[in-house]
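Colleagues,

For the teaching module next term, I've prepared a clean inverse folding example: a structure given as tokens, and then the sequence designed for it. I'd like students to try predicting residues themselves before seeing the answer, so please don't circulate the second half yet.
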């Protein structure tokens, strides 16, 4: 993460997230929805600390459009995402909360290939329109209400403004591997690279690299 409201420094660090997933397959289509939450611990090159919390919900609909051979299919569709990325500067500003809220929508695509007993899937998505909220460049209040839990949900979703690709940019690519036979309990491994950033009131860039595992139940 690089956030220019305080200092133009890059902060990096590990995080952990948990979530729930819903998936429905039909002939020629796939719907997925998920909700995830998790904290991260960030440091810049001067070892100055920040704590971040991410909350994300997504819904995606894909429709099979073409078969690229006997074992490979291409699906196209769209995605809607609700996302709050919050952080607290432990060493630089312990009186205020900072955030990037991006509730976005845009196209999505997936290529699925059967490889023996496994299905391998590559996904790609990007936002075209978004409702974006950022804190003001100049904070007029001396202290945020950090002792009130509701503040972390209400304040980052106030003053949402419509933004296009010149003000809010993003993109996500991912790979998953899962057994082709999905009965009862089954598993899925995933890798994802996700970027989102905004230009106002000052630039921010957030790049997340995720490795994950899911345990699912077929009904």
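(Answer key — instructors only)
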């Amino acid at each position: 993460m690089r956030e220019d409201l305080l200092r133009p420094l890059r902060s990096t660090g590990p995080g952990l997230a948990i979530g729930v997933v819903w998936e429905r397959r039909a002939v020629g289509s796939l719907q997925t929805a998920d909700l995830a939450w998790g904290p991260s611990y960030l440091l810049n090159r001067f070892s100055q600390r920040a704590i971040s919390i991410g909350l994300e919900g997504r819904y995606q609909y894909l429709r099979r459009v073409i078969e690229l051979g006997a074992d490979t299919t291409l699906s196209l569709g769209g995605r809607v995402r609700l996302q709050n990325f919050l952080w607290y500067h432990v060493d630089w500003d312990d009186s205020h909360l900072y955030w990037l809220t991006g509730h976005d929508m845009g196209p999505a695509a997936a290529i699925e290939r059967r490889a023996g007993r496994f299905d391998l899937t590559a996904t790609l998505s990007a936002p075209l329109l978004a409702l974006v909220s950022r804190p003001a460049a100049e904070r007029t209040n001396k202290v945020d209400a950090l002792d009130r839990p509701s503040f972390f949900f209400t304040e980052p979703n106030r003053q949402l403004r419509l933004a296009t690709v010149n003000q809010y940019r993003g993109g996500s690519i991912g790979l998953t591997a899962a057994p082709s036979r999905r009965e009862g309990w089954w598993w899925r491994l995933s890798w994802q690279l996700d970027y989102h950033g905004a230009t106002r009131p000052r630039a921010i860039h957030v790049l997340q690299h995720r490795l994950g595992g899911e345990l699912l139940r077929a009904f």
